Each structure stands twice: as C-alpha cells, then as structure tokens.
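Researcher: Can you fold this with S-adenosylmethionine in place?
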Amino acid sequence: MNLKKPVIIIDGFAGPGLFEDQSRGSPLIICNAVKDALSKNLRARQKLRVVCIEKDKEIFAKLESNLKHFEFASAKHGSFIDFADKIALVAKTHSLFLYVDPFTVRGLVWEELDRIYSSLDSGSSVEVLLNLNSQSFIREALSVLKTDLSGMDDETSGDEQVIGDTQIATLNSIAGGTWWKELILEGLDFPSTITEFSRRYCERMKRRFAEVVFHPIKAKPHHTVAKYDLVFGTRHVDGLKLMNDEMVKSRRELADMALPKEPTLFEVRSEELVPDVHRLPQIILDITVIPSTRKEVMAAVVKSHFCEFHQTEIRRCIATLLATNQLKSDSSSSRINDETKIWTTKSL
Ligand SMILES: C[S@@+](CC[C@H](N)C(=O)[O-])C[C@H]1O[C@@H](n2cnc3c(N)ncnc32)[C@H](O)[C@@H]1O
C-alpha cells in the first residue's frame, strides 16, 4: 500500500456493525479489512481512518461498542447530512471512500451528496459506493404521478422500502431535479423504467466522476427487477477496474453458495450470478474493430459489462484471440503488454 494522502473511509449509514444473528454489518466488514491491510503495512497506520455515522441512538450505542477494538475507527452519532460539510472539507486533504447505504432512497439527497462530490475540483480523490433503491423511487414516482401501475412485478411488491407519502419535492431532492418525471411519462415497462432511472442517475454523477457504473442486486435470481442498484463513482479507471474485480470475486462466492446440491447437466444459476464467459470473445472483438491498446480494451469491457468478468479472464481471452489469429497486435513477439495495440481481423 503506497498512500500519498491519508485515507478516510466513511460509512454514512452505518447500522450496528454486528446484527442480532451475529453477522457482520458494513462497519465491521470495513474495519476488519482495514485491520488486515494494516497488519501487512504498519507504516500506513497513521494514514488510515474509518468513520461510521449512525442516526439512531440505540443502534449508535451498539455501533460504538462494536468499534471500540479498532483504534483507527470512530463512531459518530447523528444524521449523515449533518456531517456533509465536514466530509466535504476532509475530502480536500484526504483520499475519501464514501459508502452510502440508507434504508430507503429518502436518505439520498442529491445536493448534499453533490456538495461532497464537488470536492473533486480541488484535486482530491473521492470514491463513492451507494445503494440506490431505484425500485422504491420509481414506485413512489408512479404513485405520485398517478400512473397506471398495471404490469408491475408482483414478486417484489410489498417491499418494506416502499414509502407511502413522498411528495414531488422529496423526489426532486433525491434525483437532483425534475428529470425523473420525463422518464415516468415515457411509459416504459416497470423493469426498464427502473434500469433507466439508475442509468440516468449515473449520467448525472458523471458531472463529478470520470467513471460511474451501476450493478443491479437482485433478492432472488428469478426477479425481473433489482432490489437495489450498487452505484460506484470514481475519478480513475483504475478504481473502476479494482472495484470490478472485487465485485466479481464476491459474486463468485454467492454463485458458489447457490450451487445445487446435486450436480446438474446445465448451469441452473442465473446469468447475473454466473455470467456466460463464452460471450467475452465477441465483446472483445466488437470493441477492437477500432485498434486500441490492451489497457483501453480492458477498460471498455469493464465499463460496458461491469462486475461480469475479472480482468484476468479478459486478459486471458485476449491472449487466446491473438493465438487463434482472431486478433492482431503491433507487437513483434507473441507476448503483449497493456500498451500494445490490438485489433480484430474480422471486418464488420
Ligand atoms: C441499511 S442500514 C445500514 C446497514 C449497513 N450498511 C450494513 O451493511 O450493515 C441503514 C442504517 O442507517 C441508519 N440511518 C437512517 N437514516 C440515517 C441518516 N440520515 N444518517 C445516518 N444514519 C441513518 C439507520 O438507523 C440504519 O441503521
């Protein structure tokens, strides 16, 4: 770990850290990961801090107690929004990783978040991972605009995150404008409206971050709409690649857990859980119609298929395509590096 600036990780909606069933919540997951990292690099000790914010008094008491063994971590009592100014300030001197996981979209106030994101202008490094409950937003928006709800996905109705009485002003404050109304009026089907909301939300974040991607998290493989979308914003494509690989790893762990007890002839797990790696060669061939460096191709695959393929898989697939003459390179040897240009030999 080579840290130029001190790093601060902020869990903005922390929860207790440890749930009743003894499973770890995000504060403890983060703190244990930091502890591991520090055990490998003691010099980073002065440069890493974790701050967890929790509004509920009782939950805060649990959080404080659960964090007391981590000397680099502190618990703060209060609303995330009350800390927005301090976070914006700290982002000017620290590399900031912000995790935002409210129960409902109501916790996401665009302007408050954007105040923090705007610290990017000072040259700071800010990365954000947020749970965007687009389903809850769109349900609310549909009901506020009294749009026909027929054709809605019944499996997910009754979700505790549905909010009953949100007013248009609240929806505007979450979305950072009135643009969501146009989306509702486009009359797309329910799943497409949700996906489109997340996509346009990410587009807006691109005013502050070079790279913004989202990944749908579904409660059950057969659901047609995501329970929520994980949105990740970073200034650097390298941050995107790192997050991609980490998310692929945890998706694989989930896929392993979902393995059927008895062996089956065909893959029975969903495509989201087990993306079909056989699609990868064509994805790469489509991208390399324009000659590009391997680094650019890897970035393009990660951006267009976030959380589907690990970089090792992409690199290996490029090597196979070169070996089978489906790709050409400007390298004189068979070994290539990130700067080597590659292109497909197949015409469009
Ligand atoms: C979804 S839970 C967080 C779970 C946690 N990220 C985890 O994975 O263990 C949201 C938490 O945020 C707290 N909360 C709700 N509104 C808040 C706010 N405005 N500021 C800070 N915390 C808030 C809730 O009390 C709840 O404990």
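Model: Folded with S-adenosylmethionine in place. The pocket of S-adenosylmethionine is lined by residues 13, 15, 25-26, 53-56, 59, 79-80, 101-103, 107 (CB under 6 Å).
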